[in-house]
């Protein structure tokens, strides 16, 4: 049995103890079925969130596309839904159920805990108690409750969270063009590696320190030669300061409202955020592949 998490930008597969992450943007012509064909011969448990990608007319079309693509390789695949049940065909309950699979798995061992799963695009912040209250919860409702914060380690445009940085001693407003992303900021600040910067860059160019700095410099309408490495790094730091406050404040509020005992942190942001929220890095402390938590979780709960 393998676990599959089909996101809008990344496809994650947990095969035994191995984790495979493929950049697979569903808003373009996707090679989802082709990638999944590499894993033939296994049964599959599947979760998704990629149905929201704007290449689809609506979520119904997105769900059908994902189910059909999976079925080409895994005709007997089972799909986990927001009702906490497994389904063998496309249905509305499959939309954005990956976070619930993670909670469903973790709550068995840690009933009074909560999860912060911060990946490339979003942060899921969900308490485990009263699991029944989570059933049927859409992403819109989670946004309203503070259980979903739409920022991540790679794909968040820098200018959506911060609006200025101090450059050469002068407060400098940001351009709102998509010049740089959170991946550029975190790479420059040492929070992610080359391998972890797995999404497309804003300008379609390479990942590397100088390339990231150049993208960050454009946020204040400058070339790197104009503001130097210190100026571009100040842009990265301004973004990180804003993101840190946003995510940590949301975690603090949910934890206080639910009176949780432990916070478990997953996603590629787990090593960075676990110390900030007083949480436990799932990979380092528990041995769970934090960067592919929903795929791991759905694989575990399908035969529970």
TrEMBL record:
Coiled-coil stretches noted in the UniProt entry, renumbered to this chain: none
Top-level taxon of origin: Archaea
Gene3D superfamilies given in the database record: 3.30.420.40, conserved archaeal protein q6m145 (3.30.420.190)
One GO MF term attached to the UniProt entry: hydrolase activity
Residue ranges occupied by any Hydantoinase A/oxoprolinase domain in the UniProt entry: 45-276
InterPro entries: Hydantoinase_A, MfnF
The protein, known as: Hydantoinase A/oxoprolinase domain-containing protein
Organism: Methanorbis furvi
Lineage: Archaea, Methanobacteriati, Methanobacteriota, Stenosarchaea group, Methanomicrobia
């Amino acid at each position: 049995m393998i676990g599959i998490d089909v996101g809008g930008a990344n496809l994650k597969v947990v095969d035994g103890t191995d984790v495979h992450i493929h950049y697979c943007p569903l808003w373009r012509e996707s090679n989802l079925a082709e990638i999944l064909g590499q894993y033939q011969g296994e049964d599959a448990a599947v979760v998704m969130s990629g149905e929201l990608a704007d290449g689809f007319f609506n979520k119904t079309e997105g769900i059908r596309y994902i189910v059909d693509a999976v079925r080409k390789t895994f005709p007997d695949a089972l799909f986990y839904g927001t009702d906490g049940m497994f389904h063998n065909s496309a249905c509305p309950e499959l939309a954005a159920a990956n976070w619930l699979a993670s909670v469903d798995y973790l709550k068995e061992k840690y009933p009074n805990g909560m999860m912060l799963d911060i990946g490339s695009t979003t942060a899921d912040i969900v308490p485990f108690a009263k699991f029944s209250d989570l059933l049927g919860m859409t992403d819109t409702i989670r946004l309203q409750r503070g259980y979903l914060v739409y920022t991540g380690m790679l794909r968040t445009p820098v200018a959506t969270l911060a609006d200025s940085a101090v450059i050469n001693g002068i407060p400098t407003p940001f351009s709102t063009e998509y010049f740089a992303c959170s991946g550029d900021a975190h790479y420059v600040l040492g929070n992610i590696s080359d391998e972890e910067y797995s999404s497309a860059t804003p300008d379609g160019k390479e990942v590397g320190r100088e390339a990231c700095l150049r993208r960050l410099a454009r946020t204040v309408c400058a070339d790197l030669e104009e503001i130097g490495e210190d100026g571009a790094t100040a842009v990265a730091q301004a973004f990180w300061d804003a993101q840190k406050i946003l995510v940590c404040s949301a975690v603090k509020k949910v934890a206080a409202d639910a009176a949780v005992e432990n916070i478990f942190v997953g996603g590629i942001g787990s090593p960075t955020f676990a110390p900030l929220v007083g949480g436990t890095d799932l990979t380092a402390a528990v041995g769970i592949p934090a960067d592919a938590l929903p795929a791991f979780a759905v694989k575990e709960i399908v035969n529970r």
